[in-house]
Specification:
352 residues; mainly alpha; 14 helices; 77% helix
């Protein structure tokens, strides 16, 4: 009996000792990977980390060059998912767009005048379209379909670029669609982590809206305090989400698990977070600019043709254009993030 108790005690002691050794090693490895310490100053020489990247315009052109070199594949990918989105989620309502156009025609004379009147009205329609003003409310099933389509588009684009940059021949669209979905569970879990990381900025929006509704911004002191709290919460979400976007690429590697991908991505962005964030903001700016340069002239063309032929009002030119351009922008943005990740990995500087 005593021997059995001693054996059990020894096993428990061995188990506890092994766990403590594992956690000590994990903490030691973490501190070596993350040399920064909370509430301690880090000198500039200790946090500078190399990241050789082309200029903003040059890198954007590099992404476009790769996509154009394999335009058949990526255009087919964008069109496939645009069609899938139109079938499962639907497109913007042409009826709502027509009603908005008629309302603007009735009130536009008072709002816009002179030679810039047509541009002003088209810009108003563009803002309404871009902000979802002509998109019907999605059901829960349509929201799930929309998220799944976005996830599959992301995985297919990353898989295709990885195959192309590996030096092989350009894969077929069928091969991309059939082989890219394997890390869907891991990618979905990383996206779920990103949703939780965006909770602070969502809380900041709630706080600001509540302050506006109760008139708290009328007090200079409360206005400053609320702005500081909302700004701090927003910065926290931005700080987290920068590395998680990189984790969305890391998790697609074979044998990679979600938490391991998040941890690896965090190591990659140490000392580079601000520069990577600026690149991502540039990507969003370029995407918004491309949408504006394409959709705004289409809206003006639609208004001109509708004025000539009344039956053209029933042609959903603008909704289909928005759907097609959105699909192309998703593919381009996914390519931009993946190629940015490749540039970060190629510069294997030690953590700063």
């Amino acid at each position: 009996m005593r021997a059995n108790k001693k054996t059990l005690t020894g096993r428990i002691r061995t188990l506890v000792t092994g766990k403590l050794t594992y956690y000590r090693k994990s903490i030691s490895d973490y501190l070596m990977r993350r040399p920064h310490r909370s509430f301690q100053r880090t000198r500039r020489r200790d946090y500078i980390r190399s990241l050789a990247l082309p200029g903003y315009i040059s890198f954007s052109a590099y992404v476009v060059k790769i996509l154009y070199a394999h335009k058949k594949l990526f255009l087919g990918l964008a069109l496939f998912y645009a069609a899938l989105g139109g079938l499962l989620v639907g497109v913007a309502s042409q009826e709502t767009y027509s009603q908005l156009t008629e309302l603007l025609d009735e009130t536009g004379a008072n709002l816009f005048s002179g030679g810039w009147g047509a541009i002003g009205q088209a810009t108003t329609l563009f803002i309404a379209t871009a902000s979802g003003g002509i998109t019907p409310s999605l059901t829960e099933a349509q929201q799930i379909y929309s998220g799944m389509i976005l996830l599959l588009t992301w995985l297919a684009t990353v898989w295709a670029l990885r195959a192309i940059l590996a030096g092989g021949s350009t894969p077929s669209l069928r091969a991309v669609l059939y082989n890219s979905g394997s890390p869907i569970i891991g990618t979905g879990l990383v996206m779920l982590a990103a949703v939780f990381q965006l909770l602070p900025v969502a809380l900041a929006v709630v706080i600001v809206n509540a302050a506006i509704a109760t008139g708290m911004f009328d007090s200079p002191t409360m206005s400053m305090l609320i702005s500081l709290v909302a700004g701090g919460l927003s910065l926290l979400s931005i700080y987290w989400i920068t590395s998680t976007i990189m984790a969305l690429v890391v998790v697609t590697l074979p044998g990679m698990y979600p938490w391991q991908a998040i941890r690896t991505a965090g190591d990659l962005v140490i000392g580079r977070r601000l520069r990577i964030l600026l690149r991502l903001l540039w990507m969003m700016l370029v995407s918004a600019g491309v949408i504006t340069l394409i959709v705004l002239p289409i809206i003006m063309l639609d208004r001109t043709l509708t004025g000539i032929w009344s039956w053209f009002e029933f042609i959903p030119l603008v909704p289909f254009t928005v759907m097609a351009v959105s699909s192309l922008i998703v593919v381009w943005s996914a390519s931009y993030v993946y190629l940015l990740y490749r540039k970060v990995v190629e510069d294997d500087a030690s953590p700063a």
